[in-house]
């Protein structure tokens, strides 16, 4: 063969290779929801600025990157039933409508939680604790009214939130004090009766802690033995750069899955700020005084810390991918850094960088890495 022919063939083959690789990279997913399709849903908690349509910049990111929504606050009992028998559904209705219009998997959060529950729920007209029967009735009325209203529209409800402490013991909430352990089983029964086809979850923070893991497993087993189905367990996933230990997180994920429950990573975010005390988990009641030294990145995040954040998110998603057959959904607790609750907890007025999209609604470099992980 003449040398010029060989060159021609060589260039043809090179061109073809270039064309094929361009085609395949054009086919590679470029968004989180497409990247993780077939593995698990990618959700975000949204606030009323988003569900009302006001925050158009965040809505654009949500529509491109996510396929599930959770209500950050508008379905908590103090919002939904501020007075006995007086329900406020405007924001929750708007949230569900928004989720439907955007074809998202819509999550309900949360029916029974000691926090953000209205005071009247537990007291009688004299300000004394209500009887066990009365509190059960109030729980039943609340759950039945709320779950029935959105029957067939909500993929799954966080039925009970944060009932077990880090050492595995029961939280001494009013629900526990007045009703006893049974309140969880009853809550699941009431929710199941109101919407038999809806998924029902137990949701909690610091789930990687051995004590909490064992306590939750014991509690769920008891409910299951009583013939009540728990479809899923939510591991909240409020993380820091070094908490929780991912080996412990994995042990919990496996333990929950072995109960026959799907696992949801429900409230993922990652603070980079100093001074976090792991023993408070994500207890909204915790608070600390502001100090300048505890707010070091008000003017921007140093590259070194940004890299640590990327590496940590990557490690978390590697673990989720490893167990994608057990995980139904990974939900970030917000979309952009500015809207994260972490800026104000446990210290008000700090600048944190907890989420995957920055204050200009741009994806952080790690988003591309997370999408690449799936193909590798
Ligand atoms: O992010 C929520 C924040 O805006 C509220 O002020 C707070 C109290 O209602 O709740 C936050 O969300 C919590 C979630 O509902 C349950 N797990 C812990 C979350 C962070 O505190």
- Going by CATH, the architecture would be Alpha-Beta Barrel
Distance between the termini: 41 Å
Q: Widest sheet: strand order?
A: 1-2-3-4-5-6-8-9
Mean pLDDT: 95
Structural domain tally: 1
Question: What helical percentage do the residues reach?
Answer: 40-55%
- Given the helix and strand composition, which structural class is it? alpha/beta
- What is the fold named in CATH at topology level? TIM Barrel
Strand/helix succession: HHEHHEHHEHEHHEHEEHEHEH
Can you tell me the CATH superfamily? Glycosidases
**Number of DSSP helical runs:** 13
Low-confidence regions: none
CATH class wording: Alpha Beta
Report the radius of gyration as a whole number of Å.
23 Å
Give a quick account of the main beta sheet: strands, pairing sense, barrel closure: 8 strands, parallel, barrel
How many strands in all? 9
The share of residues in extended strands comes to 5-15%
């Amino acid at each position: 063969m003449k040398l010029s022919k060989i060159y021609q063939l060589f260039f043809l083959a090179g061109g073809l290779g270039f064309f094929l690789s361009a085609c395949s990279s054009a086919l590679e997913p470029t968004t989180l929801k497409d990247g993780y399709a077939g593995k698990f849903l990618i959700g975000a908690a949204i606030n009323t600025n988003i569900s009302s349509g006001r925050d158009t910049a965040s809505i654009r990111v949500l529509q491109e990157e996510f396929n599930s929504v959770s209500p950050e606050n508008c379905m908590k009992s103090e919002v939904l039933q501020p007075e006995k028998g007086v329900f406020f559904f405007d924001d929750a209705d708007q949230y569900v409508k928004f989720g439907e219009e955007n074809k998202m998997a819509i999550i309900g959060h949360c029916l029974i939680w000691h926090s953000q529950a209205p005071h009247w729920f537990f007291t009688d007209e004299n300000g004394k604790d209500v009887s066990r029967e009365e509190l059960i009735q109030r729980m039943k009325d609340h759950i039945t009214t709320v779950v029935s209203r959105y029957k067939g529209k909500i993929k799954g409800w966080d039925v009970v939130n944060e009932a077990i402490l880090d050492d595995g013991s029961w939280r001494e909430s009013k629900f526990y004090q007045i009703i006893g352990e049974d309140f969880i089983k009853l809550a699941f029964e009431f929710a199941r009766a109101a919407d038999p086809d809806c998924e029902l979850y137990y949701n909690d923070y610091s789930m990687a802690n051995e004590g909490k893991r064992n306590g939750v497993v014991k509690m769920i087993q008891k409910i299951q033995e009583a013939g009540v189905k728990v479809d899923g367990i939510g591991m909240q996933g409020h993380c820091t750069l070094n908490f929780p230990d991912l080996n412990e997180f994995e042990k919990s994920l496996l333990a929950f899955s072995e109960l026959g429950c799907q696992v949801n990573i429900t409230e993922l975010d990652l603070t980079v700020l100093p001074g976090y005390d792991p023993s408070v988990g994500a207890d909204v009641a915790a608070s600390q005084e502001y100090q300048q030294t505890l707010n070091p990145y008000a003017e921007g995040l140093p590259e070194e810390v940004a890299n640590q954040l990327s590496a940590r998110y990557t490690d978390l998603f590697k673990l989720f991918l490893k167990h994608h057959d057990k995980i139904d959904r990974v939900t970030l607790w917000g979309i952009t850094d500015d809207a994260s609750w972490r800026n104000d907890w446990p210290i008000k007025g700090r600048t944190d960088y907890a989420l995957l999209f920055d204050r200009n609604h741009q994806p952080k470099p790690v988003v591309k890495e997370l999408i690449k992980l799936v193909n590798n």
